[in-house]
Fold:
Amino acid sequence: MVKSENKRMFLALGVASLFLAVSGTGNAKVEGDTIVLGAAVSLTGKYSTNGKNTHDGYELVVKRINEMGGVKVGGKSYKLKVTYYDDESTPARGAQLAERLINQDGVQFLLGPYSSGLTKAIAPVTEKYKIPHVEGNGAARELFKQGYRYLFAVLSTSDYYLREAVNLAAEVAKSQGKSPSKLKIAMAFENDPFSQDVRDGVIEDAKRHGMKIVIDDKLPPELNDMSATLTKVKAVKPDLLVVSGHAKGAVLTARQVKEMQVDVPMVATTHCDSAKLAQTMPAESEGLLCASQWDRQLSYKDKWFGSADDYAIRFAKEFNYTPPYQAAESSAAVLVYIDAFTRAQSFDKEKVRDAIAATDIMTFYGPVKFDKTGMNTAKPMVLYQIQKGEYKVVAPSKFASSKLEYPRKLPK
Amino acid sequence: MPVSKTGRGDFSTMDSIQLLFQAPVLSVQLLLDGMLIGAIFALAAYGMALVWGVMNVINIAQGEFVMLGGYVAFFLYAAGVHPFFGIPLAAVVLFLFGWSLYKTIIFRIVDKDLFISILATFGLSILLQQLANELFGADVRTAESGFGTLVLFDGQVTVAEIKLVAFIAALALGGLLLLFLKQSRLGQAIRATAQNARAARIMGIDTDRVYAATFGLNAAICGAAGALVAMTWIIHPYLGLPYTIRSFMIVIVAGLGNVAAVLVAGLGLGAAENFAGFIFGAEYQAAFVFGLLVIILMWRRFWLNRQRRYLK
Structure:
């Protein structure tokens, strides 16, 4: 009898200590004088390049803020730290890690992963635990149609990526005395949430101008060759070719449009910069239009980094590569937290969430102001053209630092 | 015409087929492109047939060898050497790599069930992908060969010279391999082992060495193919699987012992794939390959069960 009671006692104690252990880590959001943010980023798997950009973007702000004396909340200076896990570029793993960050590590403020797919997996988790989630790399429009209260994005949503190309084509047509409704568009988009959003945006604006879509191919995720699609493009001679297939799509477009001599006066794609087109294949990519969230030539400024160019210089010094916009938007996400902490003067996650919702700041990355759904509606997308191996901003016209070269000369 | 929400805009499958009839020259383009890439598929497939026939191992990491060969060519190119020299170099590097893989891992699965070999090499393929990702990064790379484009029929048909070069190189490599298997002592030993490993051992052939050489040879062929891929398209750590699947399919169609059949199947697959991409849209290009694989597997099932194939 005594024995079994002892056993039960042990069991109870064991369970109790387990609970203690779990709840003990429960308020680790601020450890001593350090604010801990959490992020699952893709350090391995197919997104690992952009995952690293995201990680480096976060780290640069952490370093800079700590250098500048930290964040002042309630008269005390707090240092910043980010706890990272590798989500292996798989959404299921991302969701698991978000749970882990929140439940085991006690993180109360989350930064986004890379890609819309991962953000889609993590957003329901942060919503469930009512944890603020500021991200700079999930651009899918769908994310902001779910009524999420805790998700905020500093970047333009993906349907805006190539709208500008359609509008630019219309502008050019008008200036040549042609009606935009005469234009034919060929589209090739990867079959993933991001690219399909880009497609929706293009279709919407094409409709607005009354343009005709003559090719609408979906590219497979294991894309290695676009020649079948390009054969078609060559045959129907469109006025504008738009492609979105991450870095693979960008490289293949540049290469195979040249190889197959597909003479289209305007070719626009996403991800030129993460594909390093201008650096690695300047001849093939000459004249290509590229969508970008941000560029160092833009005239934005803030108190943490200075100008967009200052940011780029600091970044290059730290990580030995020029920051693509994926890094810049990640940095901007951390800046939103910094600003929110200072205004909330609290680490209460509800107060911080409300402070984030009320954000209205200028950063090196551009203005940040969220609408009710959590999208940043203040910042426009830019379009560059690769001219002599360099990215030159050509649209929208009010930020453009260079003139569009039209029609695109087919590289020989 | 309105753009349907889910559909393919104003351009349908029927339009694509019509276009083919209106401009027959497009078929020439598709056929050429398809056959030129088909030769590279055939190369990797031949390596797979070799390993399968000799060692009874289905190597799922085939595509990863192609990927690694691509990186050899890319790094050579990045160092300022013309990537064409990457073909022999990739072959040598991958031969050594394949040999050491055999000595550490593959020898354990040679006499085992076919299923074990699939599992083991599948694991190997994941390992190689992730290692490549870790070491080289996930960036999409390409090795610029500097070749131009041949323009035929008033610019209606274009052939990238590099594809032509790749085609010829693939054929030459295949020919060399055949010669090696027929003429050299090691080649003869490989064939003998394929026919009857036990008898070969009795006759004094060191079958372990033969296996190692075979696996190395396969890796070398894939490496060379990879170098061609890097010059023709793009490489990144995750490109392997489509090459493995295409190899598998070609081997299934062509059988284990027939080089000419492997080549024909490779060219045919390349062309069929390109036509499917044109007619149904690029999203169905891969689906078409997989669909074809299922049909062929069903068709070949009984046949494969009944006959025993040798590397002749």
Notes: The domain at 38-306 of chain B is CATH 1.10.3470 (ABC transporter involved in vitamin B12 uptake, BtuC). Chain B has twelve helices and two strands. Residues 1-9 of chain B have pLDDT under 50 and may be disordered. Chain B has one domain: 38-306.
